[in-house]
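Q: what does this look like with iron/sulfur cluster bound?
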Amino acid sequence: MTAVHLGMPGLPTAPRGVGHLRGTESFPDAARHELRNGQLRANLGHATATIRGKRAGVVAEVPDWEQLRAAGKAIKAATMARLDEHLVELERQVTARGGTVHWARDANEANAIVTALVQATGTTEVVKVKSMATQEIGLNEALEAVGLDVFETDLAELIVQLGEDKPSHILVPAIHKNRAEIKEIFARTIPGVDPELTDDPRQLAMAARTHLRERFLRARVAVSGANFAVAETGTLSVVESEGNGRMCLTLPDTLITVMGIEKVVPTWTDLEVFLQLLPRSSTGERMNPYTSTWAGVTPGDGPQEFHLVLLDNGRTAVLADEVGREALHCIRCSACLNVCPVYERTGGHAYGSVYPGPIGAILSPQLTGVEDNASLPYASSLCGACYEVCPVAIDIPSILVHLRAEHVEAQEHPTAEALAFRGLAKAMSHPRLWHLAQRGARLGRLIARGKPTLPNVFPPPISGWTRSRDLPTPPTRTFVQQWTEEHGQ
Ligand code: SF4
């Protein structure tokens, strides 16, 4: 067992060069490309509006929803405060039931552990249950690099894999594709697919089913993530809608689960709260169709070898930040994505990381260190919609502001914005300077030539601000002048 030092400052973040937590360009640059894609915006607008409506309907049915949210938040906070103890208890219980626990400090260690475990079985194929943790560490690429074939079995993940695309949503990775685009991918990539295949959802699902069934039946190794792990009994849990997860968790001889260390909950009573919060917040269902739970190995029933890989990859560094650590409470429901006006327009690829949307904007920079994802905390209007819908009441806007401050403080040289605000602070605290500045601002009236807003004639960096915002023409009278005229001194 590798020692993991929880909650200590200065801990390592997720390493560079492996996994999918960093994009190749900043959020504004990537978003600019994505915004030119009208089809993407139409697909996203339609899909997020549908899920939003379903969620709002089923949440409104629960009279004690706010109390449930508060319970979820409290359980997560209490669990994080003693995470080390819960993880050690989880290891004890999994081991007692015939499983093996591996501790991975980062993506490289986790990939090496899983690769060695798969190779030891002698198989050349792996079936996978949808898992954010394995996407985060780039496990598919690591397995393929040693010649193993990896098959995603979640329908949306399959679409992404066959289309050689990237996921763009936590829950619905192919949300950016419409039915016609999915039909084209299937027709092009699935061997022996019906040449008469149409974009009818049932036909598409049946094509994927036929393609996957053969792989389920011959697979000897499956890799999964986990939604939750109950420390008191060493029980892992996966919740899903399609049943592909159940097939992967029960049919192969060997099951390997890669789980972020924050997914542990102390008891079954705690799990009960999250199993109520998650389906209503994610798919807008009262209960998800498949909830699989397993503990260790049962002779003659299910996989006969079970390995649990506990992944850190920057999580203890997040835990060390008193404000930012709340991001570890996330149960990956994706409700915050579906209500976010920024996500709805740019889509998930613009975030660069496998974690898009508001949760991605606070989680990715913390896992990698803010300097490697510096633009993400700014990818928000701070409207607060994400906080309103989060089932565990994560205060995402406050963490965004906290990370922005961290980024600004880490700058060697002050930014143009910081200099502008310093200048403004100085002027506002010296009346003579302030009056001079007000007189200077009147020049703006000359540039405006009677129009209510100023034309965008400013040099950088001001032009970066005015390109997408109207700068009002300065008024003829200042506030102080108006006040004096109307109320006297
Ligand atoms: S931050 Fe909250 S709303 Fe967003 S995915 Fe996580 S749990 Fe869901």
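The chain has a mean pLDDT of 94. The pocket of iron/sulfur cluster is lined by residues 281, 330-336, 359, 389-392, 394 (CB under 6 Å).
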